[in-house]
Amino acid sequence: MKKMALLLILLTLSLGSCAKPSPYRDIHFFAMDTFAEVRVYTSDTSANEALIVGKSVAEDLENKISTTKEESDTYAFNHGAAQEYSEDFTELLRLSLELSKFTDGAFDMTSGALIELWTSCEAEGRLPTDDELSVALSNAGYTGVQISDDTVTKQNPGLLLDFGAIGKGYAADRMAESLRESGVSCGMISFVSSVTVFGDKDFKIGIRKPDTSGELFGYVSLRDRSLSVSGDYERFYEIGGVRYPHILDPKNGMPIANGIHSVVVLADSGAMADALSTAVFVMGIEKAATLYRNAELSFEFLCMTDDGAVASDGFLAYFEPSVKGEQPLSLSQYISER
After folding, report:
1. Beta-bridge partner residues of 147
2. Taking the CA atoms of the chain, what radius of gyration do you get in angstroms?
3. Which residue in 260, 286, 261, 291 sits closest to 275, CA to CA?
4. DSSP state of 84
5. Residue 15, pLDDT above cutoff 70
6. Dihedral sign from CA coordinates of 123, 129, 133, 134
7. Residue 11 pLDDT class (50, 70, 90 cuts)
């Protein structure tokens, strides 16, 4: 899978109500297969210890949920090793199952066999065969995982977990919790495509156009909330000179090709924003609109497509276009015109 420039989100800061001016201390590191940054808004040198603790939270979680680290809970689950799973792993799996159910499987952390298939086929320079897809699909499906108390089981031995579509957001939630417990009242955690902010400061997030130009489509004001971006322009499978989006449809195993190129989701937690940006990408606008309107999950979203941009009505309250007059079409207007 190609991993190109990781600047999905450009972060700038507006004036907020934390200490004025707004001095901050930060730390940068690599975790969750991407670059991470943590900022805490204080001039107190004791915050340096909180930053180190926050970094250790991300690293510890990665060691538990990574698909490739042999000591991780995910690796043990995927390879049938008997062990007592950590609380972090069980909690993340339980949350993932709930979100899979809410999205009717559009987000599905049991797609590991499909991801493994496409990754190996890319290395071999060929597309998966129908038989290979059929086998991978038979080894997927969130209903095949059960949690009872602290016991985690799977119906099919070939089922593989992959938390790539929720892990960064969940890590940001855990890190924000750790920073608050350390006495930090205002901060930001960024995993490039996932950002979580907490405290009473307004952050201004620049959203890139869904291409490699680096140009901004607009800005989102964020306070005590999370934002996640899923797109088809930075990460992809390249086979026979053709680029296939890395986001796969859990129902047929194929890369999504529905005209959507980028999805931005705002939610109250990083895990929810992360998972739902993938789910909306898979669903398409009409099904996402149904999910949005049923009020079971509280989120806002923006879809950038071949035909323009569509945003939930609530999203528009936080959005400012980079070019005056280039406002996304509201979801209400989009639905009324269908």
Report:
1. 152
2. 20
3. 291
4. P
5. no
6. negative
7. very low
